[in-house]
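Key idea: predict the complex, not the pieces.
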Amino acid sequence: MNNMVESFVELIRRGSTDLPADVEAALRAAQAREEPGSAAEDALATILENVALARANSTPICQDTGVPIFYVSHPQGVSTRKLRGQIEVAVAEATRRAYLRPNGVDSLTGRNSGNNLGVGFPTFHFEEWEENHLRVSLLLKGGGSENVGAQYKLPYTPPGAGGSTVPLRAGRDLEGVRRVVLDAVTRAQGKGCAPGILGVAIGGDRGTGYVHAKEQLFRPLDEPNPVPELARLEERLLCECNELGIGPMGFGGKTTVFGIKIGAYHRLPACYFVSIAYMCWACRRARMEVRNGEVAFP
Amino acid sequence: MATYELDIPISEDAIRALHVGDAVRLSGVMVTGRDAAHKYMIDTFIRADVVPESERSLYEELQRLLRGGVIYHCGPVVRQREDGRWEFVAAGPTTSIREEVYEPEVITHFGLRGVIGKGGMGPGTLQTCQEHGAAYFHAVGGAASLIADAVKEVVAVYKKDEFGVPEAFWVIRVEGFPVVVTMDSHGRSIHDEVEAASKESLEQLIAGG
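Result:
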């Protein structure tokens, strides 16, 4: 295997400093919707100014560069052990170059490893696929947004977000999914750095549900869901989440969420999980492809 | 809604003049502190019978910096220059509510006038702001490169090796640091108001679904 460490560092640099075009365009559209002169409009203007500055200076969009999450799709015969080794070297180097904040903390001693390497850190998902090329996708998701993610087990009957007297009565169907997504967004308020993008997974188990929810965040914002009933639910929820009025940073406003992507896994008969990965506005995703030794960042 | 320029240290009068929704640009020296730093201040200084000898100089330094001062909930990305000095590369706010259990005591003990973070804080901090003349300033979450631009100098750093880079006390000199008052010294919190309104909307959406 070629040494691709420098390319992986570049993947991380792009992920941390260069917000994807579809995300930026959606934020710009959100700014145009807010009342001129409102705190919401001002926050979005600051966000967009920051995005441009980070790109120009090649500095992190957000200081919380999160757990780097790598989704690797590889052809038959590739050593995932060697790939992991190279990516780990690149993560440490990207930390040294200040593209990443050192985030790996020992859960027992509280010590920060200083280079983003540790037990189960960063996160890897490997899958062999039928293609002949290698694809490495990176998601940088900060702790604020990670903390407001939620997993519901349907049916879910308690009252909605704190203090509400109306029971959610979320059943095991898409209407139930709708109810718990609205509840999760209300609970999150601005704390996940709204406006956010939701990755939602229906089904799976408690582990695969969250992994699949995060995978949804790679889908381009302007691409409708290929499954018609999920496409309808995404569209409806996008409108309804914004009726909550939480707004950018929770200042109040018209844009609380600017993307919802829903996927579905098969589930056990007894289990109906809805896993919600809340992504902050700084949806930092990047991709690298290697074909015949040629590296590209599509 | 008005716009203010404030220099740190801030007077009580200046804080009392602020109301939720006001935009403020802060200049002067402030200190970053988040989870580990707050726990440390509580355990080592505020609730301790005696401050250990080894921690006394930091205690005196923090007393000096935080009287009329501002604490910033932030774990920055930093870079060390060749001359050994540090600079902030990315420095947006972190979620403040985690410090709710500590903040009222920290404000009272050190005589803070301001706390900067994101997401707002709870009733304990709101009440302390009212009683002691302090305000909660909301920075734009994720606007890390922009805010790092307002950090003109890293004056000092404490507890970096012990707490790690994100959790250390970074003493920074800022110019025109942009924030919005979301909890004022008159008992108002934008966060409480938005949350209450959003819960009502949720109830309607559920009932209407």
